[in-house]
Design goal:
By secondary structure, the chain is of the alpha+beta class. It has a domain at 42-157. It is 52% helix and 16% strand. Residues 24-46 are annotated as: Disordered. This is Nucleoprotein/polynucleotide-associated enzyme.
């Protein structure tokens, strides 16, 4: 097997004098290390170790990001399955039910019975893949544990007026819709 020095000499990149000079410098450095009892720092080795540490840290960060993305994908799949299994029908869709989603007012058409369930809080609205679906309140709570942003909380109105409300004696009729 031919050494690197011999290969470089054959290629004409170095001459015999340069090779001898490098060998002498190395032997002098080793003698000095033996006499003083100290080790010289191999900069190339240190640089390689530092590069290896940086690469390992980068790989850990990428793995953490990949794991987080996989966990988020799994949560979305769980929510989709919960909605698919427990989806409630909207009925004939003759009554418009308005609700707020973020800063927008959205509307779905439901039957009168479904509207009563929504107002009473027995059904909740879930936003999934650009669609609004109705699910029972228990399922909505399970979905909210996984992703609170996908469940749209419908504000429940209580029939009991506040104690300091000046309009408490004026009741709103039951058949009044907004």
């Amino acid at each position: 097997m031919v050494s690197l020095q011999e290969q470089l000499m054959k290629a004409g990149l170095v001459d015999k004098k340069k090779v001898q000079k490098v060998n002498q410098d190395l032997s002098k450095q080793k003698k000095i290390e033996r006499r003083t009892g100290t080790e010289s720092v191999n900069e190339s080795r240190e640089a390689a170790l530092e590069l290896q540490r940086k690469n390992a840290e980068r790989a850990r960060e990428l793995n953490a990001q990949r794991d987080a993305a996989a966990a988020q994908k799994a949560v979305k799949a769980q929510i989709a399955q919960l909605v698919q299994v427990n989806r409630q029908q909207r009925g004939k869709g003759d009554i418009a039910y308005n609700f707020t989603h973020g800063t927008k007012i959205e509307r779905i058409y439901v039957s009168e019975q479904v509207q009563r369930h929504l107002v009473a809080g027995r059904l909740v609205i879930v936003f999934l893949n650009g669609n609004y679906e109705l699910v029972p309140k228990v399922i909505g709570e399970k979905i909210a544990e996984r992703d609170p942003a996908s469940v749209i909380q419908v504000k429940q109105t209580s029939n009991e007026p506040d104690a300091d409300d000046p309009y408490a004696e004026f009741q709103i009729p039951d058949d009044f819709t907004w």
